[in-house]
Each structure stands twice: as structure tokens, then as C-alpha cells.
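#struct-pred
JK: can someone run the complex with adenosine-5'-triphosphate? inputs below
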Amino acid sequence: MNTILEVKHLIKEYDVGKNSRQRVLHDVSMTIERGEFLSVMGPSGSGKSTLLYTVSGMDRATQGSVRFCDIDFSAMSEDEIAKIRLSRMGFIFQQNNLLKNLNIFDNILLSACLSKRETKQEIKERGKKLMEQTGILQLADRPITQASGGQLQRASICRALMNQPEILFGDEPTGALNSKAAGEIMDILLKINENGTTVLLVTHDIKVAAKTQRVLFMMDGVIAGEKHLGKYQGEAGSLKSREQKLTKWLSDLGF
Ligand SMILES: Nc1ncnc2c1ncn2[C@@H]1O[C@H](COP(=O)(O)OP(=O)(O)OP(=O)(O)O)[C@@H](O)[C@H]1O
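RT: done, C-alpha cells with the ligand placed:
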């Protein structure tokens, strides 16, 4: 086994007013192996996004440890963690967060330009290749106001992949899309995972979670259960049965 992320006894509290703190994650422990494709489900407010942001180093743990490969986030400065995020992790969100004053191509190239590891030519070539793989090469010069939600989400996937991350985090990446566009985004994420990138998604959508390999169920700030579905191989018949298994499991957990 090759562990990419190890979380032990994670506690996360937020300051909520004067001398008042809300505990959102209660003693969460989990391990993610390199190459896995996981999703996190659970009721609204159960702590899914907080878990994602804390394990990806976007936010600090209050107590407990988060290790990415052999790196202990608690021993690192904000700047050091930001460098790791930029060079080794990718992020996609429900809202694509693309910059309005840049066209689609320049939005995609931006993070690679910031990491300054390659020449502009190398960056452009990889950007084009990713756009081709995700079916949006023809949109390179478009302003982001002239593309659909699904196309913009493909662009944000390209942007997240520009620095060839080892792990991709998604907070409801299909949440703002219709079911056809959501299915297409999931197919792209499955290919990315097949090529070796570990993927961790937060989702409310059973159809999305059913295509992932392992589903974590969060409830009141703890991981209340997990379901191993195995790698999804792409057959429609097996997808139906995965969705049914997941629906029954979630219902048994009271969701
Ligand atoms: N920055 C913050 N400051 C204070 N409280 C916060 C902050 N972020 C989240 N919370 C609180 O933490 C709890 C968990 O929020 P979180 O967004 O992690 O839940 P979630 O399961 O992702 O919810 P949803 O499915 O609705 O997105 C909620 O009660 C929320 O109000």
C-alpha cells in the first residue's frame, strides 16, 4: 500500500463570536491510498467541505494530524503548505472560480505560470493537450462569459491538472450542472483517476458517488460509515446496481 493522505484524530473548530467555538469535526481518522477515487456524502452541515479543506491544507486542523505523503502539515508554515497545494494538488469547486478578465486558455495556464517550473511554451502545449482531452480546445480564445457551465467546469478541471497534481480535490464539482453535463464531468474525472491521480470529491449526488471506488458517509462531524464499491469499470448495468447498493446503505445509515 502507498498512502497519500493520512488523517489522525482530526478536530476542527471554528470561532463563532466572542469566546465561542463550534466543533465541526470530531476526532476524524482516515487513510487514502494513492490511486483511489473517493467521495464523501452526508447531510448538509455535517462537515464534508470542512473535511476537504482541512485535509487539503486549505485550512488548519485545530488538533490531530494531517499527513500528505511524508509531509506533516502541522509542522509547516502557511507559505510552505501553499507551495505544496500549488505544485502537488488540484482543486475544483461547484462554482468554477475562473477569472472574468482572462479568456479560457489563459485561465487554464495561470496556475502553471505561477509555479514557474516550465517554459511558457511547455505550459501552453500542456494546456492545449488538456483542453483537447476534455473536449474544449475550440473554446480557447472565448471569454468565460461565452461558455456553458459544463464547458467552464471542464476548463476548471484543465486548470486543476496543469501542474500534474498527485491528488485532485473536488467540492461538489458537478453540483451546478445538469445531469448530462455532470455525467460527462464524472467520465473525465474517471479517466484522470485511471491515469493515476487520486481523487477525493464531496457530493450530494448518488449518481456521482456511485462511480467512485469508496464512499465515506459523514454525520455530525464524524465519518459514520464507509462503503467500498470497487473501481467503476464503465458498464451501465453495474452503475445501476452500484446506485442501488449505495441508496440502501445510505438509507440504513438514516440518510
Ligand atoms: N468558516 C466557518 N466559520 C464558522 N463556521 C463554519 C465555517 N465553515 C463552516 N462552518 C460551519 O461548519 C459546519 C459544517 O459546514 P460544512 O460546510 O463543512 O458542511 P457540509 O457538510 O459541507 O455542508 P453542505 O452539504 O451544506 O455544503 C456548519 O455548521 C457550518 O455552518
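RT: quick notes.
Residues 23 and 184 are 37 Å apart (CA to CA).
The chain has eight helices and ten strands.
JK: thanks, will look after standup
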